Amino acid sequence: MALISDLLHTKELPLSPLTLLVLLIFTLSWYTWKKQRTSLLLLLPPGPRGVPLFGNLLSLDPELHSYFAGLAQIHGPIFKLRLGYKLGIVVTSPSLTREVLKDHDVTFANRDVPEAGRAATYGGSDIVWTPYGPEWRMLRKVCVIKMLSNTTLDSVYELRRKQVRETVGYFYRRVGSPVNIGEQMFLTVMNVITNMMWGGTVEGEERSSLGADFKEVVSEMTELLGKPNISDFFPGLARFDLQGIKKKMDGLAKRFDRIFDVMINQRLKIDKEGGSKDSKDFLQFLLKLKDEGDSKTPMTTIHLKALLMDMVVGGTDTTSNTIEFAMAEIMNKPEVMRKTQQELEAVVGKDNIVEESHIHKLPYLHAVMKETLRLHPALPLLVPHCPSETCTVGGYTIPKGSRIFVNVWAIQRDPSIWENPLNFDPERFSNSKWDYSGNDFNYFPFGSGRRICAGTAMAERMVIYSLATLLHSFDWNLPQGETLDITEKFGIVLKKKIPLVAVPTPRLSNPSMYE
Questions:
Q1: What pLDDT score does 463 carry?
Q2: Number of Cβ within a 10 Å radius of residue 338
Q3: What's the domain range around 451?
Q4: Which of 64, 115, 240, 452 has the smallest count of CB within 10 Å of its CB?
Q5: Are 449 and 105 in contact (CB under 8 A)?
Q6: Residue 278 reports pLDDT greater than 60
Q7: Number of domains, the chain
Q8: What confidence tens digit (pLDDT) does each residue in 451-475 have?
Q9: Does the annotation list 391 as a binding residue?
Q10: Partners of residue 385 on adjacent β-strands
Q11: C-alpha 240 chain-centroid distance
Q12: CA 320, 174, 327 angle in degrees (round to 5)?
């Protein structure tokens, strides 16, 4: 192997592309053989047979969540896949998930960082990809206790309210015409998040133009994060970036970085001049924390930007897609639409508009959200975990460094757990013991354990408030001659395959309530 390395780096012996390819294949084959030989000594989970070098890569179905569910029917609730040089382990049962995310929580608290994720988040410096330890705990504390606590979210309610009301006005101006619900809710959530991040920094039309730019970039980033990458499966090839994924992600991340720099400089200028002292946006808070933070685990500018990136990329598609799936399921079930609107009329009234203060009085709408997340969890395989040491799960050896997929999508559709699991039925949550805490491994749409989603409280508020406002303000119908399709499209974030286009009709008694 040293000889091959010398040949690859020599300046005296130029290699043709064909020779280089042969050497690379030989090198990868040797490493794969060595890995497989080692694994024979371990009691690994069962799994489908693969082919030399590529393992099971060539047989993967693009719809991974349903493909993995099918393999579980053949190989059992825990099985392995050879993904090039990587070993993938798929878990598809509540009991085994408990072992991974609770019993061995610390061992599985790390991530197998993909090249696209590393490029998108300043080398993996955000709360999603940072390894478990003091740095991650600092970031988690900033997010959960400071940025996304109920107290902080209460303080920025007016920012959320303003954007949702503007969306209502947009739909009202297009009454009787088809509108793309998912697209508009993406822009709404994006504007809410950017307002929360630097609401006191950017004003007027500049803020609107930022929202449009972000939509384009976020869509491309989430697509790249969900795209299979040769660099992840054959780490030795990562330097070549054969699919150009890292290069594309670097370009997208730089676009965000330039925006972040502008926002940071504007905020520093405003603070230096003594303005906006009453501002409550996150950027001001993070800059203050960076200056006054813990000397042992300081927050850096890179951490600050990475957290802003998490807010933009992690909080937009997930929330807007959940709203879109909920609206589609509600429209597909007229009885659910009727019950939801009856509850809203009883709590809010037709001579009033929805406020977040109404939300806790809407148990049926909460059940609608829970049922939506049961059928369509935002991250169907969660974010893959990675054991920091070799351990045992379900009696099988799980080697250090494996990529662990927890198929929450399949578990929440398991007929042995859920009655009529494919039926959208909010009533199953009417007397619900289930919540979003991740303590019940039959239902954990936001994950569980130390790496549970940090934005759960924000997502719950945004989804419920948006659904309540849309359903209270309008009746919704499909365009003439159209049929409803709720087919999913797999990605790191689950999406509706065909965008939901619907026609709004006003329900409120006073037109001024749409202003």
A1: 97
A2: 11
A3: 42-514
A4: 240
A5: yes
A6: no
A7: 1
A8: 999 999 999 999 999 999 999 999 9
A9: no
A10: 111, 404
A11: 28
A12: 30
Is 453 exposed, middle or buried, given 0-12, 13-18 or 19+ CB atoms closer than 10 A? buried
**How confident is residue 7, by pLDDT bands cut at 50, 70 and 90?**
very low
Phi/psi for 198 (5° steps) reads: -145, 45
> CA-CA distance, 351 to 342, in Å (whole number)?
14
Summarised one tens digit per residue, pLDDT across range 171-210 is 999 999 999 999 999 989 988 888 888 875 555 566 556 6
Answer yes or no: is 105 within a domain: yes
Q: Which of 452, 455, 445 is nearest to 152 (CA)?
A: 455
Residues contacting residue 449 through CB under 8 Å, at least 6 positions apart: 101, 102, 105, 108, 109, 438
Mean pLDDT confidence for 308-322: 92
Give domain status of residue 8, yes or no.
no
C-alpha closest to that of 109 among 459, 411, 447: 447
Whether 305 is in a domain gets the answer: yes
Whether 157 is covered by a domain: the verdict is yes
User: What is the torsional sign of CA 433, 435, 437, 442?
Assistant: positive
How many Å apart are CA 121 and CA 225, to the nearest integer? 11
What's the whole-number average pLDDT of the chain? 89
CATH number of the domain residue 310 falls in: 1.10.630.10
pLDDT, tens digit, for every residue of 372-413? 999 999 999 999 999 999 999 999 999 999 999 999 999 999
> Which residue is listed with tokens 């969306």?
167
Cα separations (Å) of 338 from 225, 341, 345? 38, 5, 11
CA angle at residue 377 from 375 to 378, to 5 degrees? 145
DSSP line for 76-133: -SEEEEEETTEEEEEE-SHHHHHIIIIITTTTT-EE---HHHHHHTTTT-STTTSPTT
> Which residue is associated with the tokens 């930022």?
210
Q: What is the pLDDT of residue 192?
A: 87
Q: Model confidence at 6, in pLDDT bands (50, 70, 90)?
A: very low
Strand partners, 477: 503
Q: What is the band of 19 on the pLDDT scale with cuts at 50, 70, 90? A: low
